[in-house]
Amino acid sequence: MITGRWGKPNEVLLDLTVDEDGTVRGHANPGRQNAPIRRGHFEAGTGAVILEGDAVNQDGSSAPFHIEGRLDGRTLRLRYQYGEMSGDVDIVRVDEFRPPSLTFWDRLKPFIEDFRRSRNARTRPSREENLRELQKQGESLDSIVFRDAVAADIPALAELHVTTWNATYNTTRGPTIEIRTWQWNKVFANERRRDFVLVLETRHGRLIGFTWGKPSDSGEFEGNLSKIYLRWEYHGLGLGRRMMEETARRFLARGIHSFNLFAELSNPTLGFYDRMGGERLLNEKGQFDGAYGWRDVRTLIR
């Protein structure tokens, strides 16, 4: 029988129940698209299985799926057509999944990235330095505006993206302003957008930070915080917490109650995500590689 949850602990692909007559009920991608199986059948004698239904895409449109294959021992060997995606996959029950063994690089990488993160953090100004600079510029935290970005912000947003990314990773070889401009033009040109871009603006009209959130179609979280950056001269002033809170409000306004984010292990702001209550998510080998999750966005709203 194929009743049960199939996939990996961090990526369940099928949640199935088989009736006595072979009818299969359940969902594909449970916890993500949670796509109901409209028609399913399992033939116990041959192990053949067929599953059909409809999933909902990020833009709200419907995408049919067709999955068929057979049970081979304790493994489901399947061929799928999922909207425009197709391929083959072999999966086992979640409670029977065994992660791959760690390689030498798997064991060494965390130490290397810890060193890089420490090195990158040393270039960041202290809270006291940033406060003094804020006062010198005649600015105050109360004068900083949080608002949704518009297409007219793209040039400034591209510059901000390049500057903050390079500062975070202590480099000058990140993507160029031209590349970032092209990327942001593509985002804002989408007529069926379900994402949001939050920006922070000074009273002089300068953008100093931004977040980019969108629905997720993978993993067990409803949303994904794709980007969150703040100019380093504004770190340590409490703006990061306000960015997370305003981001959480925007997720909730879109019916999204949980989200994840993926950061590089060399990112010096990992500690900030810990302090904000982010759950460190482990990969299939049981290691933390920079992924965080918030299962209830309301915990970020004061």
Helix content: 25-40%
In terms of DSSP E residues, the strand content is: 25-35%
Order of strands, main sheet, comes to 1-2-3-4-5-6-7-8
Number of helices: 6
Count of all domains: 2
Q: How is the quaternary structure best described? A: single chain
Rg over CA atoms, rounded to whole Å, is: 23 Å
Reading the helices and strands in chain order gives EEEEEEEEHHEHHEEEHEHEE
CATH homology superfamily of the largest domain: Gcn5-related N-acetyltransferase (GNAT)
What does this structure look like?
By secondary structure, this protein is of the alpha+beta class. It has 2 domains: 4-96; 104-300, Aminopeptidase (3-Layer(aba) Sandwich), CATH 3.40.630. 25% of the residues lie in helices and 34% in strands. It has helices at 104-121, 127-136, 154-168, 177-189, 239-253, 270-275; strands spanning 4-8, 11-18, 24-28, 35-43, 48-56, 62-72, 75-82, 85-91, 145-148, 196-201, 207-215, 223-230, 259-262, 279-282, 288-294. The chain has an 8-stranded antiparallel beta sheet, with no helix packed on it. A 7-stranded mixed beta sheet has the order 9-10-11-12-13-15-14, sandwiched between helices. A hairpin with a 6-residue loop joins strand 3 (24-28) and strand 4. The longest helix has 18 residues, at 104-121. The chain starts with a strand and ends in an 8-residue tail after the last strand. The model has no long low-confidence stretch (mean pLDDT 92).
